[in-house]
Amino acid sequence: MVQRNKNKQNEVIKVKPIFAEEIHENLDLQDDALKAWLEMLWLRPACALQKALEMKHFMRFFPFKGPAADLGCGDGTHSALICGARFNPDFDMYLSINKMRMVDDKVNDHRIHFKKADNENEYFKGGDPYLFFDKNQYEGKINYTKEPQNKFSWGCDLADALVKKAELLKIYDRVSVNDLSKPLECPSNQFSTIYSNVSYWMDDKKLLFNEQNRILKDDGISVMTAQDPIIHSEIALTAIVKNQLNEMGYSKLPKWVEEVDRGRIAQTTGKLLSVDEWNKLFDSTGFEILYHGQFMSRDAYWQYDLDLRETFPSDVALSQDLNSMGSEGAELRKAWKNSRVNHYFSKWKQYFHDYDNWQKNLPRAWNFFVIKKKGAKSWADSIAAQHYKK
């Protein structure tokens, strides 16, 4: 339901969150999205669950109205699947990725999220293995089994390597390097839809959303996802162990928790906003919430926290070794991948379709917002309204 609470000068609209796990329309399409994400992220299956749950909300606004912008596009695979594209199962995010070696050197920097991970120590501190890019390993293997229904007029990301990957997917008219902490490199009143799943990382969020308001058409919407700060206080395994260090007999976080965390708590400390804080930010930058979704129950987030993170470097190495063995290696890799995808497709159903509503009153770990210009009529008004009739 929509509730209207008045500030001193402005009217702030609060919208009741809808849990993705309770969205049961278009079950075949939802299961197709989960399967597609598992095929893309088969070495990180719980991450595939997180992205597929986000898509349950996004599907309600698909196909979206163009022209559209993708702010923080990464390597483009996320956005391609959101646009309705489906890839040949032979294509995934691990075809061009850094092969992380074991080294004895320690990594002291806790804020290396945008640093290429060249070894396991950097990976476990939060380094990014996807920043490696070999075009020869990637370009000829991008085969769609289903063409995208939507495309983006513009995509941008901070990392040049990711932009080069995204460009090869052919879902962007233009893609460029752009730091979202600076003004956006595009004209005003340009887009009917903006999508971003990295807005919560930004320090100067007010600048970013003022810029979004500038480039958005009057009838446009901005779609975004954001981790909730409840992760830091009580949901993440790091938070749970920190809250019970003495009871568990620890004087500091054990190494296994640090490796599971991979520096994510440190990297997002001070960046995550509560729903009320997002509401105030939107209001101050000329936006209001049209649709509010949440996803990732606590059970699902604990799976995400573990998510084969500790074996990921060796899994990547084995995958690459199989690729280099010719047709026999390719068949072994394919069989391994199919087995894992099928296993997790069955396993994640209980967190993907919650018919029992066992966590009805517990907030989820991620927020999904669709916002529009304050007081304006957007192209998605009627779509959002039909989901609040209940």
Characterise the protein shown here.
This protein folds into two domains: 2-93 and 146-228 and 273-386, Vaccinia Virus protein VP39 (Rossmann fold, 3-Layer(aba) Sandwich); 230-271, no CATH class. The chain is built from 18 helices and twelve strands. With 390 residues, the protein is an alpha/beta fold. Helix 1 runs antiparallel to helix 2 (45-58) and helix 2 (45-58) crosses helix 14. It starts with a strand and ends with a helix. Helices cover 39% and strands 17% of the residues. It has an eight-stranded mixed beta sheet with strand order 3-11-12-10-9-4-7-8, sandwiched between helices. The chain has a two-stranded antiparallel ribbon with strand order 1-2. Strands 5-6 form a two-stranded antiparallel ribbon. The model is unreliable at 1-10 (pLDDT under 50). The chain is globular.
